[in-house]
Amino acid sequence: MTVPLGILLGLIAAIFIAYPFFRSRAKSVSGDEALDEELEKRIRALRKGRSEAAEDVVDKVCPSCGARCDSRDKFCSECGASLST
Amino acid sequence: MVDTGHIALILCFIAAVYTALASAWGARSGSHAFTASARNGLLVVAVLYTLAMAAMLYAFMSKDFSLRIVTEHASRDLPAVYAFSALYADKAGSVLFWGWLLSLFAAVLALQKYNSYKQITPCAISILAVILAFFLALVTIVVNVFEENPYPPVDGFGLNPLLQNVGMLIHPPLLYLGFAGFTVVFAFVMAALIVRRPGMEWIGGIRRWTLFAWCVLGIGNLVGMWWSYIELGWGGYWAWDPVENAGLMPWLLGTAFLHSVAMLRKRHYLHTWGLALIIVTFIFVLLSPFITHGGIESPLHGFYASNYPPYILGAIVVTLVGSVVLLYARHRDFGKEDKPLSPISREGAFLLTNVIFLVLVFLIITGVILPRIVEGLGGSEIALERDYFDWSCGPVMLFLVFFMGVCSTLRWRKASLKSIGWNLLYTLFPAVIIAIAVLISGIGNWYALAALVCGFPLFTIMREWLLGTRARRRATGGYYAGAFLRLIGSNRPRYGGFIVHIGIILITLGVIGSSFYGLEGMETLDIGEEMTVGKYELSYDALDMREGSSKVSAVASLSISRDGKLIDTVRPEYNYWFSWMEPFAEVAVRTTPAEDLFVSLSWTSFEPGDESATFRVLVNPLIVWMWVGGGFLLLGGLVAFWPDRKRQSGSEAGVT
Predict the structure, then answer these.
(1) Which of A17, A57, A68 should one mutate to test binding to chain B, selecting the residue with the greatest count of B CBs within 10 A?
(2) Which CATH code fits B1-164?
């Protein structure tokens, strides 16, 4: 009982773990994987550039207390000062 | 079922090793197939681990004495609800349980962050899989947790009666949840460093994980104190025992890290310092099982003759060297720091708070390891007594509580002296007035100090809430209550933190009251005799003997009077457990907001005709506020933890 059960459990786990390889092989036949890779590379490059500028783009700095606030905030979440200037 | 669990655990170990390798390769090569396969591998680890845990719990509930672990920690009369306690009462069982929680957390992280942090998550999965493989090796290779008895006995030794308490059902799991949470945070931070993620915006991705780990660890420590208070019979809740300290130190470091996360998110300041703190926190998380498993001897509790300490020490050394080298190699990548304009700013206050937390941990760890170093150098056997910890850590802790009042009011970048002056006038001044009034009224010098130390941060919080609520109501109208709730909702991390601070203030009050103004009496009485402790008169009315299948209980009845007026009756117990062949006290506690009356039946002969009994009675002022403070800790943690839809959609998802 023990050995067949172990084999069965191991088999199910192995199929689940290996599934992405079969899926990516099927995709690569249609050229999707290469396209995915290329898109990922571009996204990575864009993201890198964006995060360097993120401080200026995403955040506002409160003129009163200096806290970083969301760009869409109208008032500072720390001190309540207006951020609309 | 046992075989299934054992096989599942072995397969789990293999899957964890594969996941670590596949994920590392996937992160390095950028291969989708490998990272997706590794993610599936981690899910398989969680499922197989859960299967193994289910098999183990089934063995405990069905009292399967063919397993060594069940024989050593369970018996036929053990209630099923204590199957969990019995599991982590064992050396390997506790590691099994911790590893299981970690496997679940790792699976959650893999599912939660896989799409939002595509660079960091594969690497984090790899690190978590390595840690899981280490845990699994401890319970499969070093010690087989499913080890079978060649000759199964008819009954087991049973679970230590002290562990048969609801506190023990909650306390260790909460500690392990906290440890597992900090492990996830550590793995995520290390992964971000390895993949050289520029900037620090990813730190927002682990804020809630940090908060969760910190909150459950804090509550876990408090529940442990409560268990110690009501179960061990000595009337105290903290003995500065190495095992207790092992749970406290990661929490203190986690608190420092939590403040650093706020600084990193709000001000992009002190990157290296903040990340170094999570490394230290994780090292102390690993130090906890090292101490608990006898790496440093504990006079009160812990596991004995464990094989694990050398392996855990090895893991600590590898982690420390690896993470420090990594942090040093990457510390130039963090980019420009947004330095404050003045040290008198919230950044300055947070940094000082962090330093004080580190000093506190240094004092505690010195007290824990110094005796071992002295012994190792050939010196005589010493133990640093409670006085060392009380008089070195106590003042530092009091200063930390007082300083909470300063931190909350200072502005980022630079605080103006004018605003500080106004704040102090409305917060410190009334606290000083109350402290002087308490001093003059003769209530007690320590209570006067408590009024100052606790009053200042409490008034600061009240003022911040009052000003904020008033401003909100002016802007939006409506009721004050609605404006207050909207204020809390506008910045949950900040105002959740305030609620936590109130919890800490209440805990401080409880500690000061019970430490400096407790009363104690111990007397042997015959039926009809009385004893007096403080304002209470206790009259010993009766002693009942009750015999059960596992123990014989002596239950005493005592009438409590105050100023000649009967106010209550308490029934402490003294139980002789057959399997342990020794007695354990079951205390009776009468709780009021002002003080607890703690009654322990410390001795009776169990001889027919002899009803004399020894009672230990304590009056512990304000102690209930410690447990109420725990409630505030939990509430504040929940408020800060609650997801903020606007920020999640705008900031976290947008950046990643």
Answers:
(1) A17
(2) 1.20.120
CA distances from B382 to B56, B309, B374, B376, B387 (A): 41, 22, 8, 11, 14
Of B48, B267, B414, the CB nearest to A13: B48
Domain ranges of chain A: 1-30
pLDDT at A5: 83
Over the stretch B61-105, which tens digit does the pLDDT of each residue have?
999 999 999 999 998 888 888 888 899 888 899 999 999 999 999
- Helix, strand or coil, per DSSP, at residue B332: helix
The span from the CA of B203 to the CA of B193, in Å, is 11
The rounded distance, in Å, linking the Cα atoms of B78 and B159 is 7
Q: Determine phi and psi for B413, rounding to 5 degrees.
A: 70, -60
Distance CA B393, CA B363 (A): 7
pTM score: 0.88
The CATH number of the structural domain formed by B519-622 is 2.60.98
Please give the residue of chain A at the shortest CA–CA distance from B11.
A10
Length of chain A counted residue by residue: 85
As annotated, the residues of chain B forming the CATH 1.20.120 domain(s) are 1-164
The shares of helix, strand and coil residues in chain B, as percent rounded to the nearest 5, are 65, 10, 20
State the greatest distance between any 2 C-alpha atoms of chain B, in Å, as a whole number. Answer: 82
Among the residue ranges A8-17, A51-60, B493-502, the one predicted with the least confidence is A51-60
> In this predicted structure, what is the pLDDT of residue B606?
86
